[in-house]
Design a protein that fits this description.
249 residues, alpha+beta, Phosphorylase Kinase, domain 1, 2 domains, 7-stranded antiparallel beta sheet, 8 helices
């Protein structure tokens, strides 16, 4: 991918509008090109600032009045005809069928947690394939935390858990669920672990398995944590408990 093409794609990338193939190509380019990565971060910051601080101007009442005046009046309804006796019963059956369809659709439609888990798993796999496990490489929590805090509107908790067998390797920024998030990169033997962190309310814990990967969720001290890795569930759960304990301090 040429530098010019990468710059043209940055806007669509930040807005989450690139297809998976172009996303992988661009992230591989960003991992090798500090100038392009810096431009991407500037664009992300600008996007976040616009969403957070841009003024909202409501349409004036006069516009609503003009639009209403431009709509033709509703014609007078014709006199109602006598309905067959069986028609109300048929309507009732139709309503029941419609409600059953809506209920079935809601049951099979993935919920918010499922959609977010799928998005986080995609982000983890993209970063792994692109060799971009971190933007700042350090095992020192006092290096990773300030780097992330300077680029986000919140300060994520970062813990050194090497004494427990979980090595902090660095941190990076990502964009999931319509928000910029911190990603803490840990390593357990040969297994890479992404810990996605952002401000969030307390919610029940969650654990899922998808395509050979395990996903854990918990909340602590005003922060939401999502762990994604191919590490086995027991050890990933151990890391979640350790992070929860440190975040609560």
């Amino acid at each position: 991918m040429t530098p010019g093409e990468a710059l043209r794609l940055l806007g669509a990338y930040v807005d989450g509008e690139l297809d998976p193939l172009k996303t992988l190509e661009l992230e591989a380019h960003l991992a090798e090109n500090p100038e392009a990565r810096a431009a991407c971060e500037r664009l992300r910051g600008l996007s976040a600032a616009i969403r957070a601080k841009a003024d909202y101007h409501a349409a004036p009442a006069s516009l609503a009045a003009r639009l209403a005046a431009s709509v033709p009046p509703v014609p007078e309804r014709p006199r109602r005809l006598a309905l067959p006796r069986w028609l109300p019963l048929a309507s009732a059956f139709a309503c029941v069928a419609a409600l059953a369809f809506v209920a079935a659709t809601l049951l099979v439609r993935p919920g918010e947690d499922d959609r977010l888990a799928a998005e986080l798993l995609d982000a983890h796999v993209r970063a792994t394939l692109a060799g971009r496990a971190f933007d700042v490489a350090s095992s020192d929590q006092h290096t990773v935390k300030p780097w992330l805090s300077a680029r986000l509107p919140f300060s994520p908790p970062v813990a050194d858990l090497s004494a427990h067998g979980f090595e902090l390797t660095g941190g990076r920024l990502d964009y999931v669920g319509g928000r910029r998030v911190a990603v803490l990169a840990y390593k357990r033997r040969q297994h890479l672990i992404d810990v996605f962190v952002w401000p969030g309310e307390a919610r029940p814990g969650l654990n899922l398995s998808r395509d050979g990967f395990n996903i854990e969720r918990f909340a602590s001290n005003g922060m939401s944590f999502w762990l994604v890795s191919d590490l086995n569930r027991n050890e990933l759960g151990d890391l979640a408990k350790l992070l929860a304990e440190r975040a609560a301090l």
